[in-house]
Amino acid sequence: MAFSFAVVDPTGNTASTATASVTVSPTTAIITGSNLTPGSSVTGVANVSNTGTVDEFYQVTVNWSPAGSTSTSAATRLVRELVVSVTAGSPSATTTPVFAGSMLSLVDQPASPGQSLPLSVGNENVQFLVSLPSSATSSYEGIDVGFDIVFVGLT
After folding, report:
1. Is residue 1 part of a domain?
2. 99 beta partners
3. In whole angstroms, what is the distance from residue 26 CA to residue 46 CA?
């Protein structure tokens, strides 16, 4: 995702342009799992790169939907129960927490201004851990949910 913008000095004397661009890889699924049982989890890692010409921020959102024959109300119950932990850090550094909470709440996180991704860092790995708490009951058996992880670049 790339876009350009121009900044004009209010006095009208100068103008400059910059390009904001965030690239995410891989472009294929990073989390797959089936038959998740109470107490189990799945993980996935994406790499986010600042390929623009200015320091940037980004936010993460999970767009979920019922899968198979699962109803929307059953899927909603499950995404309220699933716990997601998101951490980020440069590939060679320690990670920092970005989000921890229910999948249902993973919308535009971290809150504004977002996760910083300066040009000097260039890229960082973002790890997702999705867990079904050990306290989950058998009422979640057979519920299928599909989800997309969406990264939005901000300047």
Report:
1. no
2. 86
3. 6
